């Protein structure tokens, strides 16, 4: 699906920097294209709008319902200019996004960031294993056209800044060419 203002997915294992990058991106895009981009932190929306049928007590997270999530997002995707921040992506329709940013980070960084967030050890281990076994990476590449995927390392502030600049360049180019 082509839309004047691209839909952007920012994905990666928890702790890789999705929320931080999404906010920086939204901030900059709102200045350059006022009113054209909206950021959705999907984890929060799932809880706020109860887009789940079960609550996983072991990990204290909702087991989101893919259909409910897609139904809630669909009208906004059609409008374009949506930035979605989420750690999973295989259930989204293949033609929803114009640009997908996949963030990666080292185990040490993920560990430190999730400890700071107060995650229990079990949840941290699960996320580190997911990063080691390329779970989100493989999900992205199996679900979307590789030409729209940008893989970025997000270990340092300098990398975050470079990732932001690269993403902005690609988004601006996409807007011009549409
Ligand atoms: P996510 O949304 O993927 O779970 P986050 O944006 O909340 O991750 O980041 C988790 C913490 O790590 C937060 O305190 C900011 C920090 N962080 C993220 N990316 C970083 C980077 N590239 N360099 C330094 N700190 C980073």
UniProtKB/TrEMBL annotation:
<dbReference type="GO" id="GO:0042274">
    <property type="term" value="P:ribosomal small subunit biogenesis"/>
</dbReference>
<comment type="similarity">
    <text>Belongs to the adenylate kinase family. AK6 subfamily.</text>
</comment>
<dbReference type="GO" id="GO:0006364">
    <property type="term" value="P:rRNA processing"/>
</dbReference>
<feature type="binding site">
    <location>
        <position position="19"/>
    </location>
    <ligand>
        <name>ATP</name>
    </ligand>
</feature>
<dbReference type="GO" id="GO:0016887">
    <property type="term" value="F:ATP hydrolysis activity"/>
</dbReference>
<feature type="binding site">
    <location>
        <position position="117"/>
    </location>
    <ligand>
        <name>ATP</name>
    </ligand>
</feature>
<comment type="function">
    <text>Broad-specificity nucleoside monophosphate (NMP) kinase that catalyzes the reversible transfer of the terminal phosphate group between nucleoside triphosphates and monophosphates. Has also ATPase activity. Involved in the late cytoplasmic maturation steps of the 40S ribosomal particles, specifically 18S rRNA maturation. While NMP activity is not required for ribosome maturation, ATPase activity is. Associates transiently with small ribosomal subunit protein uS11. ATP hydrolysis breaks the interaction with uS11.</text>
</comment>
<feature type="region of interest" description="NMPbind">
    <location>
        <begin position="41"/>
        <end position="64"/>
    </location>
</feature>
<keyword id="KW-0539">Nucleus</keyword>
<feature type="binding site">
    <location>
        <position position="17"/>
    </location>
    <ligand>
        <name>ATP</name>
    </ligand>
</feature>
<dbReference type="GO" id="GO:0005737">
    <property type="term" value="C:cytoplasm"/>
</dbReference>
<comment type="subunit">
    <text>Interacts with small ribosomal subunit protein uS11. Not a structural component of 43S pre-ribosomes, but transiently interacts with them by binding to uS11.</text>
</comment>
<feature type="region of interest" description="LID">
    <location>
        <begin position="116"/>
        <end position="126"/>
    </location>
</feature>
<keyword id="KW-0698">rRNA processing</keyword>
<protein>
    <recommendedName>
        <fullName>Adenylate kinase isoenzyme 6 homolog</fullName>
        <ecNumber>2.7.4.3</ecNumber>
    </recommendedName>
</protein>
<dbReference type="InterPro" id="IPR020618">
    <property type="entry name" value="Adenyl_kinase_AK6"/>
</dbReference>
<keyword id="KW-0067">ATP-binding</keyword>
<keyword id="KW-0808">Transferase</keyword>
<keyword id="KW-0547">Nucleotide-binding</keyword>
<feature type="binding site">
    <location>
        <position position="15"/>
    </location>
    <ligand>
        <name>ATP</name>
    </ligand>
</feature>
<dbReference type="InterPro" id="IPR027417">
    <property type="entry name" value="P-loop_NTPase"/>
</dbReference>
<dbReference type="GO" id="GO:0005524">
    <property type="term" value="F:ATP binding"/>
</dbReference>
<feature type="binding site">
    <location>
        <position position="20"/>
    </location>
    <ligand>
        <name>ATP</name>
    </ligand>
</feature>
<keyword id="KW-0418">Kinase</keyword>
<feature type="binding site">
    <location>
        <position position="18"/>
    </location>
    <ligand>
        <name>ATP</name>
    </ligand>
</feature>
<keyword id="KW-0963">Cytoplasm</keyword>
<dbReference type="GO" id="GO:0005634">
    <property type="term" value="C:nucleus"/>
</dbReference>
<dbReference type="Pfam" id="PF13238">
    <property type="entry name" value="AAA_18"/>
</dbReference>
<dbReference type="GO" id="GO:0004017">
    <property type="term" value="F:AMP kinase activity"/>
</dbReference>
<keyword id="KW-0690">Ribosome biogenesis</keyword>
């Amino acid at each position: 699906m082509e839309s004047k203002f691209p839909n952007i997915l920012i994905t990666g294992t928890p702790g890789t920097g999705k929320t931080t990058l999404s906010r920086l991106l939204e901030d900059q895009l709102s200045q350059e294209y006022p009113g054209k981009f909206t950021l959705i932190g999907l984890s929060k929306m799932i809880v706020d709008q109860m887009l789940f049928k079960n609550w996983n007590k072991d990990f204290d997270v909702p087991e989101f319902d893919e259909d409910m999530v897609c139904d809630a997002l669909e009208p906004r995707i059609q409008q374009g200019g949506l930035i979605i921040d989420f750690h999973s992506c295989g259930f989204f329709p293949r033609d929803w996004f114009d640009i997908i940013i996949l963030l990666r980070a080292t185990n040490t960084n993920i560990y430190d960031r999730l400890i700071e967030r107060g995650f229990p050890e079990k949840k941290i281990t699960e996320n580190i294993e997911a990063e080691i076994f390329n779970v989100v990476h493989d999900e992205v590449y199996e679900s979307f056209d590789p030409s729209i995927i940008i893989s970025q390392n997000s270990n340092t502030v300098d990398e975050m800044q470079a990732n932001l600049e690269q993403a902005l360049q690609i988004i601006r180019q996409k807007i011009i060419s549409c």
